[in-house]
Write a structure and sequence with these properties.
The chain is mainly α. It is built from 25 helices and no strands. Helices cover about 75% and strands about 0% of the residues.
Length: about 500
Amino acid sequence: MDKIGGIISTLSKEDAALFKQFVQNKKEIEQRKDLQLFELLEVSSGETNTDVLEKIYPGDANIVAYHATRKRLFKTLAQFIHTQTILNDERVEFSSYHSICLHLFKNRQEEIAWHYLKKGLRLANKNNLLDLEISLYQLAIEEGNSEYALDMNEMLVRYEALVHVRHEESQLQIIRQVARHELNQRLRKGVNLDFSAFIQNLNNRFLPNSPSVQSLHVIYSQVCIARSIVLEKKEFYTFEKYIIDAYSKLLHSGVFKKENNAIRIHFLYMIAHTCYRNKKFDLARIYLDNMYQCMLDYKKSDFKKYEYKYALLQAAVYSYTYASDKAIAIIEKLLQEKHIQRSNEQYFNALINLGLNYFYSKNYSRTQRTFRNLQHTDSWFVKIMGQEWVLKKLLLEAINLFELEHTELALEKIKFVEQNFKAYMDRDPHKRALHFIRLFKKIIQDPAIVSTKSFAELVDNTFTFLPHEEEDLQAMTFYAWLKSKMVRRDFYEVLIEVVAAT
């Protein structure tokens, strides 16, 4: 993938439009070749540098000018992203107080300097900007002999308290890194974890007897770290009790307020998603309802931030409760709404989920058309969405082609997966994908085999199943398709039965 194209791919449609205005506002160049290059890379689907060069400089392969244009585009992109970061980061405004005060003290404007220094200290404290507050107190102590200064003893006490908090935050950062590493190592070895006891042991090791380990931000951070490992290792079953207990403890402590409502929304989303992956769909709905209510409570920005996530998870719950028609309606509406904030990842997930629900409804042609909207190469998607996402996409495409009776194309797709994802599928927890592919390949090559006793025995001997409550929901989906072929029944009905089995 073109490296500058990779940067461009991270921009939303709104940011891309703003960038073009940003470029056009620069008057120093009449013919903006860098803008032309941006627009080519924005829609590029694997074109080589030679192809792009020919489009920008037709009939004149000016490689020197082309590389100069690339450098100019990179520089302008960097300026634009930096500018947008400043515009969207309130901390930049607050940190400017230190620079202003330092400038005023150097120019002997003590009264004005202390006016803004005191204001900066109040703002830093109010907005939890710890490093800025420490640096402002350092400056205040240095200038403490002024008649306009705060009381020296009070400043020293506050400064020492802030430094202590900063030390604790450094220790908490170490806890986060150690937790991420050790969780990954233990889950890789297949060790079932008591997440609560594991985190408590780390807290006792690095911050013994510190009340800060019970704060909202610390607990939230630790839950997010644990979940990131859970998402990779599919250990949702062991995670559920830990995250629900953590949330309940925080809720009963009364810590959730208007200013941290976004954290509460994300907590509820993570719990709802965990319940969904653990096939507890009624419980997932309860937490989704609570999440939606919190989205409505305070800032509109909170609602907009989580609207897409909420809708996709709501649709996913419908998908596995025999209501794919409702899931389709939600996702179709979501994709039509232009005002809803969404990332590339959310948009691509919406398309995949829509295609899957069309598949549940046996609308294979619409599934195929939906997949065609994923207008990038698989190698591009691997970088943006990850190998697991692309592997699932390719398997769904292959199964859909098989249902459309395009068996040769389905076989080509499976061979492509075998060639490009074998190393990935050789690792846990993805080995069962390789088993599925081998069985699917046999069905493609000899469709009659699927209803034989020997094939049923092969399936039983190939798959190792976990207890139902621990089994991965998405793995169940692929197995259910195989089973539907073996018993000659509707796939969606079989899927619902497999997922609901006790």
